[in-house]
Specification:
Blueprint: H1 2-60
Coiled coil: 5-60
Organism: Parazoarcus communis
GO biological process, one term: FtsZ-dependent cytokinesis
Length: 64
């Protein structure tokens, strides 16, 4: 009985340790995703601006 309780206690400690590690990793990943989403938004805005400028330049070209 004592051996089983000791084994369960060890497993519980391992589970808690894994949970803590994964919780920290999840927090880091959420932060990274937020930064990447912000960067993606900025890049999309730059692409949109470049597209608009290119379309404006194309509109100024004489018809061939």
């Amino acid at each position: 009985m004592d051996a089983e309780l000791t084994r369960l206690e060890t497993q519980l400690e391992q589970l808690i340790s894994q949970y803590s590690g994964l919780k920290g990793e999840n927090r880091e990943l959420r932060t990274r995703v937020g930064k990447l989403e912000a960067e993606n938004h900025q890049l999309a805005a730059k692409v949109q601006l470049a597209t608009e400028k290119l379309e404006a330049l194309l509109a100024k070209l004489p018809e061939a």
